[in-house]
Structure formats: structure tokens, C-alpha cells
């Protein structure tokens, strides 16, 4: 089992400034899954509670001279502490003499001090003329063939796309709003309609607090808004759309919703919300453009899946 | 939807949600508090009290609203959870953006209805359940202690600092006013003694006004005294405002703060708004704190 590559400048800044701060908010520990073509950071894929997040990069977007081999179809996965990974990357950047040398990343097994058992590390190595800096980030034992198979399967299942996606309103203000909404209740109903409406609502025995965003861009299945609904209240309009089968509603945890919005730390160019088939989960897909264009950067993908709360449980 | 019969008691609009949040937060001294809201043609009064110890009132006069349509007979009153009301209002307050918030009462099910239309395609709304109000105790009726009021005005920041400092000595704080030399003394005794003097001559920058024709002294429970300043909004300190304290008949302490409810200053693009100066808009906050029952000198001021 071997993995060795050089991080590109672009890859370093992408990880250090955008991706790792965002993923760190999703949870300290994640799986890093490396294949011949991709590097994928996965949160909560093997345990179903909590927000699942999937950040996938083509290996070229992060690495140069990418070499990977394993007996498992050249696939390696392990869990890693993102805080340590982020810290290692940051600290090596402060000491590295950038102009001359590249930052190598590789999988090693070392004997830690006071131990007889060799343990696996992800090692960052920067060599300068006068000095070399090495950072070892401890990782879990690589996943077994069976576990890796399960991870691969979950990853495939997580690629399912909702029938309708609506473009989220501006993320910072949405985040700001949901942050304040958090104090009022714990469960949020999220409705998405084919007309391009996104309706968020917290409702308890004491209060109903909601926000309706209309005329958002729709991807996938769409429908024309019903003219007679125009002057109704947001709540009634939403109820009617659900009855008509033009909208779906799911209940999610406000905390989860807020957490997924923290992915905006990765500075995506926009985001889309959708509800999976049969209301299985709420999906938010972050979109990145190729810098300076309005074209989707296909080498990066980031999306979250929020578990739906059983209406009976609350 | 206007499904309730007839016009609502009140439809009003606000352009400074943050100012109202600040004003209401200043009377939020614990987590769960029930408030009574009283509506009238003059504005809105929010009353909070702790049984027979402290009562606070926030006066939101109709001048603070950009629109105030009052259609009720009498003075409708309803009970609401203060915390929920403030948290909910807070969701409508966006930093750096001015939103018009519409408040309407009652809704179809006697709710308090809030709505902000940010743009034609985005709307935030809330419906807060109201309760039949608990009766407000009237024994907070404040009467002057004599012909000359016993009162002083002190910088809000200094008052807050003094009360914060008095935390360690103990649970009971003595407030003493004396004409010669004109001064206000805060004294706490307990684990230790701490005395804070505001001298009218020495601290003219802190003690802004002072009237007192005879010495008077009363004790107040620290926790209720603290309630009067614990959540003073930062805008009050920033605006360098003063708080007025008056001791009334029976030692009842009245503490008054002024909270600015100005519209957030957002750079305007409209030409017609250039040169328009917003008149200063203030919400009045009043606290009434009952003195501790003192065995020996209750007749001090009668």
C-alpha cells in the first residue's frame, strides 16, 4: 500500500484557506479516501446520524506526481483528524521556503516514541537548502477491504440527485438568519417547490418563525407558479404546493442546517438545495466556478446530506 | 391573510429592529420571563416583573414607529414570553441592512404577527402565541418621597461598573444619599465591605445631576439591583448616556435608562434622503426596585 504525491500551490491554498476550515466545522474526524483519480473527504458516511459531507477533488486539482497503489484496486481510505491536518499544513507553510521546493505528502508507517507498534502517519515533508521540515499527522489504520467496500457503496448512494434543485439565496445572509433562528427552536421544516420557492420554518407550540424565498433558479423538474396563490400567505402557499405535489417538505435539525451552511467557508460560488427521493434527506450542493468564469469547476465537488428527522420523534 | 374579523388592534412598522431588541434586552435579566404587552394610541409598553421585588417597563412610543395604526378600544393587553419575543425580533435584524418590520396584533388566533418583506421575492414572518396576561401588580406605583425629589443622574457606564463591582461583598446593598457633602454612596457588606462614593463636587463628569434635601438610606437586594444594569445595551454606553435614579416613598427605587432606537445608518443611494437628519429616537426603560424590609429604620423617609 503506497501513496505519495506533491501538493500543488493551488492545492495547498485550496485546502488550507478554504476546504479544511469548512470541513473542520462539519466534524473533527473524517475519512480521507484516495483512488487513482480522486481524493475524497467524507464525514459520517459509515454512521448514518449527523450531517454527511462529501468533498471530492480530482487528484490533479490538488497534486502533482500522484502515485497510489494498493491491493484493493489502488484505493486507500483511513480516518484523519482534520484539526491536526490543518495545523500541519499551516505550520509547514510558515517555515517552508516556497520558491524552491515542493511539499510532499506520503503515507508512512513509523515507530512512535515509547512504542513497539509501528503506526501509520500521513507525512508532510518540505525540504529547503538548509533545512527540512517534516510533519507527521497520525491517521487510523487503513480501512479493511470490507469497510472500504462499504464506504465506496455509501459514496455511490450519496451521489443520488434530487429531482428538483433550487438555488440558495446569498449564503452569508442565509447563514446569518439561520444563526439567529437557532434560538427559537430545534427543528426546521424545509420546503422546496418546483416553482423555485425555498421555505424554511421553525414551528413550536409557542411560535412559528419562517422565511420564504421565491423565484429562485430551478434545476431539474420545474413547474409554473399558480397565479391564484400569489396573494396568499407564505405558509398557505407552501401548504397548497405540497398538496398539489409541486413541493416537498422535510424536517431537519436546525443545528444540522446551520452546520451545512458553514461550508460557505470553502467560498463556493453558489449553492443549491434539493430533497432526495421519498424525502430521504435534504441535500445541499455547493458549486464552484473555474476562477474568472461562470463555468462549473468539475474538478471540485462539495455537497452535504442532512438526515431527516422522523416527524414522530419530535 | 386577514381572516380575523374587523381591523386588527394594531398594525405598526419599525425601521430599527436592533434598537427595539436592545431596549427589550435591557429588561431581560433571566432566561425565562413572562412579559405583558399593553397597547395604546401612544405606543407600546412592555412590562416584566419578579414577584414583589422588581418591575421593569419598556416604553416604545408611537414616534419610534414609521407607521402606527391603532384601532382598538381601550388598552388591549397580552402576555408573551420575553425571551422568545426578543430572539424572534433578533432574527429580523440584519447587520448593515435596514428592514421594515411590520407588527400586527391580533392574528387569527390572537397571535402577535411579525413580517418583514426584504425584497419582492423574500419574506420573513413570525407568529408568536400570546397568553391572557397575568395581572400586573400595582404596588409599584411610584410616589415621590417628599416635596423635593431625592434623585441623581449618573453616567450609565459608571452605574453599571459600580453595581458590577458590588457583587462580591454580599447580597444586600445600601444606597445612601446625603446633602452635605452632596454625594451618593453605594455600600455592600457581607464577605467584606465595599463602598463606592459618587461625590457631586469631585465627580461632576460621572454624577451629572443631584437633588437631595435630607439624608436617606435604603437597602436593596443585590440581585435585583443588578437586574437594572446587567443587560444595558452597548449603545447606551457608547452614546455616553446617563441613568436617573430616584428614591420614592417607602424607599422604592426607580432607575431610568434611555436607549436609542435610531435607524441603522446605511449609506443611502437616494438623492432625496441626502441632508435628512433623523431626529433622535429614544425608548424609555424604567425599573422599580423595592427596598429590603428594614427593622430599625423603615420610618427614615416618611
From TrEMBL, chain A:
It comes from the Eukaryota. It holds the Pfam family Hus1. GO terms for biological process: DNA damage checkpoint signaling; DNA metabolic process. It is found in: Nucleus. Keywords: Nucleus. GO terms for cellular component: nucleus. Its main location: nucleus. InterPro entries: HUS1 (IPR016580), HUS1/Mec3 (IPR007150). PANTHER family: CHECKPOINT PROTEIN (PTHR12900:SF0), MITOTIC AND DNA DAMAGE CHECKPOINT PROTEIN HUS1 (PTHR12900). Belongs to the HUS1 family. This is Checkpoint protein. The lineage of its organism: Eukaryota, Viridiplantae, Streptophyta, Embryophyta, Tracheophyta.
TrEMBL record, chain B:
Gene3D superfamilies: 3.70.10.10. Keywords: DNA damage, DNA repair, Nucleus. The keyword Acyltransferase does not apply. CDD domains: PCNA (cd00577). One of its GO terms (biological process) is DNA repair. The keyword Nucleus applies. This is Uncharacterized protein. The lineage of its organism: Eukaryota, Viridiplantae, Streptophyta, Embryophyta, Tracheophyta.
Amino acid at each position: 500500500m503506497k501513496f505519495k504525491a506533491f501538493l500543488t500551490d493551488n492545492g495547498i491554498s485550496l485546502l488550507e484557506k478554504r476546504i479544511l476550515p469548512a470541513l473542520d466545522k462539519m466534524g473533527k474526524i473524517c475519512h480521507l479516501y484516495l483512488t487513482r483519480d480522486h481524493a475524497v473527504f467524507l464525514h459520517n458516511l459509515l454512521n448514518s446520524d449527523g450531517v454527511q459531507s462529501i468533498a471530492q477533488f480530482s487528484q490533479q486539482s490538488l497534486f502533482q506526481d500522484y502515485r497510489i497503489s494498493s491491493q484493493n484496486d489502488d484505493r486507500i481510505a483511513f480516518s484523519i483528524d482534520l484539526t491536526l491536518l490543518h495545523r500541519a499544513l499551516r505550520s509547514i507553510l510558515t517555515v517552508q521556503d516556497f520558491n524552491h521546493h515542493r511539499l510532499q505528502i506520503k503515507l508512512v508507517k513509523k515507530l512512535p516514541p515509547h512504542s513497539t507498534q509501528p503506526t501509520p502517519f500521513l507525512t508532510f515533508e518540505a525540504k529547503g537548502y538548509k533545512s527540512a521540515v517534516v510533519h507527521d499527522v497520525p491517521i487510523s489504520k487503513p480501512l479493511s477491504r470490507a469497510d472500504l467496500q462499504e464506504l465506496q457503496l455509501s459514496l455511490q448512494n450519496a451521489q443520488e440527485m434530487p429531482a428538483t434543485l433550487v438555488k440558495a439565496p446569498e449564503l452569508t445572509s442565509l447563514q446569518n438568519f439561520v444563526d439567529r433562528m437557532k434560538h427559537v427552536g430545534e427543528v426546521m421544516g424545509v420546503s422546496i417547490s418546483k416553482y423555485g420557492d425555498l421555505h424554511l420554518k421553525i414551528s413550536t407550540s409557542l411560535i412559528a418563525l419562517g422565511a420564504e424565498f421565491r423565484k429562485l433558479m430551478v434545476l431539474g423538474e420545474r413547474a409554473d407558479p399558480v397565479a391564484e396563490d400569489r396573494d396568499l400567505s407564505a405558509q398557505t402557499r407552501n401548504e397548497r404546493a405540497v398538496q398539489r405535489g409541486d413541493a416537498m417538505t422535510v424536517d431537519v435539525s436546525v443545528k444540522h442546517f446551520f452546520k451545512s451552511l458553514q461550508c460557505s467557508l470553502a467560498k463556493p460560488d453558489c449553492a443549491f438545495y434539493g430533497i432526495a427521493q421519498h424525502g430521504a434527506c435534504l441535500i445541499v450542493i455547493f458549486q464552484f466556478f473555474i476562477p474568472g468564469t461562470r463555468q462549473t469547476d468539475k474538478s471540485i465537488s462539495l455537497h452535504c446530506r442532512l438526515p431527516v428527522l422522523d416527524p414522530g420523534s419530535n | 391573510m386577514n381572516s380575523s374579523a374587523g381591523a386588527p388592534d394594531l398594525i405598526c412598522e419599525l425601521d430599527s429592529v436592533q434598537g427595539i431588541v436592545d431596549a427589550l434586552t435591557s429588561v431581560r435579566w433571566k432566561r425565562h420571563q413572562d412579559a405583558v404587552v399593553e397597547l395604546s394610541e401612544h405606543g407600546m409598553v412592555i412590562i416584566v416583573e419578579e414577584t414583589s421585588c422588581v418591575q421593569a417597563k419598556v416604553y416604545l412610543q408611537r414616534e419610534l414607529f414609521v407607521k402606527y395604526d391603532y384601532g382598538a378600544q381601550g388598552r388591549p393587553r397580552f402576555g408573551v414570553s420575553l425571551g422568545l419575543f426578543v430572539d424572534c425580533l433578533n432574527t429580523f435584524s440584519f447587520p448593515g441592512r435596514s428592514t421594515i418590520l411590520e407588527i400586527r396584533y391580533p392574528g387569527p388566533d390572537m397571535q402577535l404577527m411579525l413580517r418583514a418583506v426584504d425584497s419582492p421575492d423574500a419574506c420573513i414572518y413570525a407568529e408568536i402565541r400570546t397568553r391572557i396576561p397575568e395581572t400586573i401588580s400595582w404596588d409599584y406605583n411610584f410616589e415621590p418621597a417628599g416635596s423635593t425629589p431625592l434623585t441623581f443622574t449618573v453616567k450609565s457606564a459608571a452605574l453599571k461598573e459600580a453595581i458590577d463591582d458590588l457583587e462580591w461583598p454580599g447580597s444586600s446593598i445600601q444606597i445612601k444619599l446625603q446633602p452635605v457633602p452632596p454625594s451618593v454612596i453605594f455600600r455592600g457588606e457581607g464577605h467584606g465591605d465595599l463602598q463606592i462614593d459618587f461625590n457631586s463636587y469631585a465627580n461632576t463628569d460621572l454624577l451629572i445631576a443631584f437633588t437631595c434635601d435630607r439624608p436617606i438610606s435604603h437597602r436593596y437586594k443585590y440581585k435585583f439591583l443588578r437586574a437594572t444594569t446587567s443587560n444595558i445595551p452597548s449603545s447606551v454606553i457608547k452614546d455616553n448616556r446617563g441613568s436617573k435614579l430616584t428614591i420614592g416613598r417607602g424607599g422604592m427605587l426607580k432607575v431610568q435608562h434611555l436607549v436609542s432606537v435610531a435607524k441603522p445608518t446605511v449609506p443611502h443611494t437616494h438623492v432625496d434622503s441626502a441632508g435628512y437628519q433623523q431626529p433622535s429616537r429614544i425608548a424609555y426603560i424604567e425599573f422599580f426596585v423595592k427596598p429590603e424590609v428594614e427593622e430599625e429604620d423603615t420610618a427614615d423617609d416618611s
